[in-house]
Amino acid sequence: MMITTAKPKSGLEDTVATSSEICFLDGDRGVLAYCGYDIHDLARQATFEEVCYLLWHRRLPTRAELGDLQSQLVAARPLPEPVLRLMRALPAGDGMDVLRTLTSALGHYDPDVADQSAQANYRKAVRLTAQIASLVATMGRMGAGGGPIQPDPVLGHAANFLYMLTGERPSGLATRALDVALVLHADHELNASTFAARVAAATLTDIHSAIVAAICTLKGPLHGGANADVMRLLLEIGPGAPVEKAEDVVRAKLARKEKIPGFGHRVYHTEDPRATHLRQMSRDLGQRAGQPIWYEMSQRIEALVKSEKKLNPNVDFYSASTYYALGIAIDLFTPIFAVSRVSGWTAHVLEQYANNRLIRPRAEYVGPQYPQCYVPLDAG
Ligand SMILES: CC(C)(COP(=O)(O)OP(=O)(O)OC[C@H]1O[C@@H](n2cnc3c(N)ncnc32)[C@H](O)[C@@H]1OP(=O)(O)O)[C@@H](O)C(=O)NCCC(=O)NCCS
């Protein structure tokens, strides 16, 4: 049967590709809500573990349910020894490449690897969320020349991550800052990596494979890779430079038609509501760390890009200086995005499995006219 389709919108812009109960986005009003809960309320009051429960169950947990989930996450934190060995064996490289390979390796050691039941997939979602945090923290620790640190069962998800990364008990401020960042990054409707995860899941492949597809997609500089690029830009301008230099560098980039990382968004036509919180954290943490320069530079860049291009900062812009003020290495910025987003990815994968149909769209054919006459090489 010949199918005629309307011309597709470039990049599937504004195309509704599925129904979902997980995330509500209104790009005109700057609204982001997980299962009906406004991101501003969650950022101010919720922990990452509560948000995980919300995304996976579509409702907030009772105290007992939250306690159960925390225990499950704690139990899942230790990494299998062969995965740690593999981490040591891999050549030093991009953090997202290492995370991709090691997440794939986790699948080999998951006790439910062959079980595709809904219960087993939920257990795997919990395990992936706990283990990806342990992986990224250990990657950071080993990258800095230290040995792996065993997780501390007394600590919550954000505090334990920082503890496994640094070997030191984090301050309340650092813990809360990371927790808020994790809450803000947890889900974002049908962003590119979540879409990739759902497409993979819709073939009924296993959840580890779907999450690896998502990690590969998050890596790109148009998606999660932008947060590391923002910090590279700030460092290129230089901590010792007068803040005006930030404007000169960015103006020159715009003149060369280069994109400024951390600006623009496919859906938001107003301020990204996540940027509001990250801007404030960048300011507070920068001041506390005695490094207000990154926030000041960021502010100059924000004002310039707004006036010259009418573009707002997205989630990645102020998360860069926030993570930097927390003492986190740049190579871990995008992996930390994955530490949070794995909660949303797994929620979407479970939702896809629960009501699945293969995702298989069509392409508008614009190649050579059919039919072409095939001439065998020998006939020439
Ligand atoms: C997020 C992003 C990929 C959205 O892309 P999109 O909806 O396809 O928008 P486009 O890339 O088509 O951009 C539309 C216009 O805005 C410009 N633009 C978009 N983002 C820009 C940026 N960060 N810096 C400078 N110009 C930008 C484009 O050059 C284009 O201008 P033109 O119409 O004159 O050619 C895009 O804004 C971007 O590349 N941002 C930088 C990377 C980033 O921060 N990614 C993280 C997203 S959360």
Characteristics:
mainly alpha; Citrate Synthase, domain 1; Cytochrome p450-Terp, domain 2; 2 domains; 3-stranded antiparallel sheet; 16 helices
What can be said about this structure in brief?
The chain is mainly alpha-helical.
List the topology elements.
Layout: E1 23-26, E2 31-34, E3 37-38, H1 39-45, H2 48-57, H3 63-76, H4 81-89, H5 95-109, H6 118-143, H7 157-166, H8 172-185, H9 192-201, H10 207-218, H11 226-237, H12 244-255, H13 273-288, H14 293-309, H15 315-325, H16 333-354
Antiparallel strand pairs: 1-2, 2-3
The protein binds coenzyme A.
Coenzyme A binds next to helix 15.
Structural class: mainly alpha
The count of strands amounts to: 3
First and last CA, distance:
35 Å
Query: What ligands can be seen in this structure?
Result: coenzyme A
Uncertain runs with pLDDT below 50, 5 residues or more?
none
Q: Taking Cα atoms only, what radius of gyration do you get, to the nearest Å?
A: 22 Å
Strand content: under 5%
Share of helical residues? 55-70%
Descriptive notes:
- The chain contains 16 helices and three strands.
- The model has no long low-confidence stretch (mean pLDDT 96).
- It has helices at 39-45, 48-57, 63-76, 81-89, 95-109, 118-143, 157-166, 172-185, 192-201, 207-218, 226-237, 244-255, 273-288, 293-309, 315-325, 333-354; strands spanning 23-26, 31-34, 37-38.
- The longest helix has 26 residues, at 118-143.
- By secondary structure, it is mainly α.
- The protein has a three-stranded antiparallel sheet with strand order 1-2-3.
- A hairpin with a 2-residue loop joins strand 2 (31-34) and strand 3 (37-38).
- The radius of gyration is 22 Å and the shape is globular.
- The chain has two domains: 34-222 and 341-354, Citrate Synthase, domain 1 (Orthogonal Bundle); 226-325, Cytochrome p450-Terp, domain 2.
- The chain binds coenzyme A.
- The site of coenzyme A has 17 residues, from helix 15.
- Coenzyme A (COA) is lined by residues 11, 222-223, 226, 259-266, 309, 311, 314-316.
